[in-house]
Amino acid sequence: MTNKKEIFAAIVIIGNEVLSGRTKDLNTSTLSVWLNSLGIVVNEVRVIPDIEKIIINTVNDLKNKFDYVFTTGGIGPTHDDITAESISKAFNLDYGFHREAFSILEKYYEPGEFNEGRQKMAKMPTTANLILNPTSGAPGFYVENVFCLPGVPSILQAMIGGLNNILVGGDPILSKTINLRTYESEIAQSLTNVQNNNKAVEIGSYPFFRQGKLGVSIVLRSIDQNKIDKCNSEILKFVKEKNIEIVELD
User: Fold this and answer.
1) I need a labelling partner for 76 at 20 to 30 A (CA). Which of 9, 151, 213, 230 fits?
2) Roughly how many angstroms between the first and final C-alpha of the chain, as a whole number?
3) DSSP string, 28-48
4) For the chain, where are the E strands, in sequence order?
5) Cα–Cα distance for residue pair 214/155, rounded to 1 Å
6) Which pLDDT tens digits describe the chain residue by residue (250 residues)?
7) E-only strand ranges, 15-106
8) Which is nearest to 221 in space by CA: 242, 196, 241, 201?
9) Domain boundaries, given as residue ranges, for the chain
10) Phi first, then psi: what are they for 177, rounded to 5°?
C-alpha cells in the first residue's frame, strides 16, 4: 500500500481571555485529535491576542507554511471580535455582510431578535465559504486553506464534523498508550534504544501522578499499525526484564 503524502496543519487560538488565563484552551486538544483522525498532523499552535495586525501577520505567515490553518475565537457579536475583518485584510478581500450567513441568522432568530450585535456575526469576507453551525446558528467560514471557528469549545466541536468531506488528509495517525509504574529516568535509555530501532514510530513519554504514586505514560504514534505493534513488543520486553508494573488508567 502506498502512503499518501503527509498533510500538516497549524492552530491559532485568538483571544485575550486565553492569554490572561481567564479561559482555558480546550480547542487545541479537540482540533488535534480530530485532525489526527483525518491523517492531518498538527505541527504548530500559537496563542495570540485580539490585535488586528498580529492576527493578519500570523495568518499570512502560517497559511504559506502549512496545508491548513485553523483559527478559533473572535467571530462573535462583540466589539473585540475582530477575526473575520482581520482575515478579510489578510487575503485582501471585501469585508461585509455575507448574504448566505445573513439569511441563515435572520431565519435562526425570532422576529425582532436579530439585532445589530447579532448581525455582526454575518460579517466576514463576502466571498468566503461557510462552516455551518448546528448549535447556535452563527456560521464559521473558510478562505482558501484558512478555517475560522468559534472559541466556545462545545460549539466548535459541533461544527468540525461538517468539514470531514472538505479536508484532504493523509493516512490516519494511530496511537497506543502503555502506562507504567516507574520513573522516566529508569526507562530513558531503553526507550531511546527502541526509538532508534523504530524511526517510523513517534514515541513520547509523559509522567503522571495518580493515587499518590508517580508513573509514566508511553504513547506510540504512527500511520502503520504493524510498526506500532512491533514497537509495543520491544517496550513490553524491557518492561518485563526490568520488572516494571503496567497499570490501567481511568
Assistant:
1) 9
2) 36
3) HHHHHHHHHHTTEEEEEEEEE
4) 7-14, 40-48, 68-72, 95-97, 123-125, 129-131, 140-143, 146-149, 174-181, 202-210, 213-222, 245-246
5) 36
6) 334 578 999 999 999 999 999 999 999 999 999 998 898 999 999 999 999 999 999 999 999 999 999 999 999 998 889 999 999 999 999 999 999 999 999 999 998 899 998 999 999 999 999 999 998 889 999 999 999 999 999 999 999 999 988 998 877 788 899 999 999 999 999 999 999 999 989 999 999 887 778 899 999 988 889 999 999 999 999 999 999 999 886 5
7) 40-48, 68-72, 95-97
8) 201
9) 7-163, 174-246
10) -120, 135
Residue 105: Cβ-neighbour burial (10 angstroms; 0-12, 13-18, 19+): buried
Cα 158 to Cα 110: distance, rounded to the nearest angstrom: 22
What is 174-246's CATH number? 3.30.70.600
Rounded CA separation 64/129 (Å): 19
Residue type, 208: F
Q: Which three cell numbers stand for residue 76?
A: 462573535
In angstroms, the CA 121 to CA 88 distance is 14
Q: Which CATH number does 7-163 carry?
A: 3.40.980.10
What whole-number distance in Å separates Cα of residue 221 and Cα of residue 201? 6
pTM over cut 0.90: no
Q: What is the residue type of 219? A: V
Residue 233, classed as helix, strand or coil, is: helix
Contact 47, 79 (CB under 8 A): no
Region for 195 from its dihedrals, namely left if φ exceeds 0, alpha if ψ lies in -120 to 50, beta otherwise: alpha
Residue identified by cell 503524502 is: 5
